[in-house]
Design goal:
Porin; mainly beta; 194 residues; 15% helix
């Protein structure tokens, strides 16, 4: 985890060093912050993405997601749902027209630590997942500072996991390391450009 945090901080610092060159080419609007609405629907996953434009067609984005919540029906710990996670991702975006406008394709490296269960069945899975993903999307310009973004993405990687037979009792029914491919994001993001 410490290595991932060091990597993310280093990449963001590198983006900060590159950003002044981008500002010489385009005088305004090289930084953006956004949040993705469907993540909040996924049992309250808070999220923030920061972007910095480094060229007319390129930006670098870093995303952080956090969900600490457990939901219990009628206060019963045996009848609970959770999608607890901490997720970090970092990667470039290629903008076909101009940064923060129009179609984009994105690649990213991602780490996720999660505890998920009680949603579709009674099993709970805890895991550390590492991988990479791609996404395709479109950003619609609303005003000089506001955009709305739509997109979809997938990611693949390796996870080390433990699966338990219920949310509370914790008897291990499966564990190991496995390869995965799964949807990553459904984007409907509100974007603010500085």
């Amino acid at each position: 985890m410490k290595n991932i945090i060091k990597f993310a901080v280093s990449a963001l610092l590198l983006a900060g060093v590159i950003a002044p060159d981008a500002s010489a080419q385009v005088k305004k609007g090289i930084f953006a912050l956004s949040t993705n609405i469907p993540d909040y629907i996924a049992l309250g996953t808070m999220n923030l993405r920061a972007d910095v434009a480094v060229h007319q067609h390129w930006s670098i984005e870093g995303t952080f997601k956090y969900n600490p919540w457990t939901f219990r029906a009628n206060g019963d710990p045996e009848n609970q749902m959770q999608n607890r996670n901490i997720t970090w991702s970092l990667g470039p975006r290629y903008w076909f027209w101009n940064y923060y406008a129009g179609w984009f394709i994105q690649a990213q490296a991602q780490y996720q630590q999660y505890n998920r269960g009680g949603i579709w069945d009674k099993y709970v899975t805890e895991a550390d997942a590492f991988g990479g993903g791609v996404a395709l999307g479109y950003t619609y310009l609303i005003s000089g500072h506001w955009n709305i973004e739509f997109g979809v993405g997938v990611w693949a990687g390796v996870e080390s996991y433990n699966q338990y037979n219920c949310p509370r009792c914790g008897r291990t029914v499966d564990s190991g390391t496995r390869f995965f491919v799964m949807p990553n994001d459904i984007l409907v993001s509100i974007v603010y450009i500085f």
